[in-house]
Write a structure and sequence with these properties.
The protein is of the alpha/beta class and 222 residues long. It has helices at residues 26-37, 61-68, 88-105, 138-154, 197-210, and strands at 17-21, 41-46, 54-55, 73-76, 109-113, 120-122, 125-126, 159-164, 168-170, 179-181, 194-196, 216-221.
């Protein structure tokens, strides 16, 4: 009589692996911490190769592809320069590099840390075009808007998500709570549009894990 051996089902859960470009900035560092706290394997990069990170220029598609190989997702968390030098070209070059590098590596999932300036403050009126928008952040906001346009135009074959923060974002408490909106500024019942960098990171890693906003821009705020 033949003996039937029981089938053993594997219960091992595969660890998510991400490439985080811009891992030491205000938002990038918090995304790294949030992801690692959830058991996600993070390969962080910086332009200068800061301690604990790989050296990478996001505009270098081949470099992006080499580090993205075998990963489940690429997160782009770089900001334009704030030293008075041109802002749009470097950020668009980073976006182009990530799109091409992710394709070359066979990584479909790309999540972008975006800006709030391109959100609509009123129908047809972007936040960056309102009279009270801070002049010091205007060029950065315009560059981030161009980056969103780049992903909408050229990344249709990728599972991308662009995540805009609230109108104001700064370090603070991690509550784990936030609301999700679309292309309009998201504010509370007092008209305040705000989120901490910690809760922005929660929202971004949630989106990485759940993939509920593929192929579009969302915004997160309280």
């Amino acid at each position: 009589m033949d003996t039937v051996k029981p089938v053993t089902m594997s219960t091992e859960v595969q660890t998510m692996k991400i490439l985080l470009i811009g891992a030491t900035g205000m938002i990038g560092s918090r995304v790294a911490a949030e992801a690692r706290a959830r058991g996600i394997e993070v390969t962080g990069t910086t332009r200068g190769g800061a301690a604990g990170t790989e050296r990478l220029d996001a505009a270098d598609a081949a470099g992006v592809a080499a580090l993205a190989a075998g990963k489940d997702a690429v997160v782009l968390a770089v900001s334009p320069p704030r030293d008075g030098s041109p802002t749009v070209a470097p950020l668009l070059a980073a976006g182009e590099g990530v799109i091409a590098g992710a394709r070359e590596a066979g990584v479909r999932r790309v999540v972008v840390v975006g800006g709030a300036g391109s959100l609509e403050a009123a129908p047809g009126v972007r936040l960056v075009d309102t009279p009270d928008f801070p002049e010091m952040y205007k060029q950065e906001a315009l560059a981030q808007g161009e980056l969103l346009g780049l992903f909408r135009e050229k990344a249709g074959d990728l599972d991308w998500t662009y995540i805009s923060p609230a109108a104001a974002i700064e370090p603070g408490e991690r509550t784990g709570h936030y609301r999700v909106g679309g292309d309009q500024v998201l504010a509370d019942d007092k008209g305040t549009s705000f989120i901490t960098a910690e809760d922005y990171a929660v929202a971004l890693v949630d989106e990485l894990e759940k993939g509920q906003a593929v192929g579009r821009r969302i915004t997160v705020a309280y």
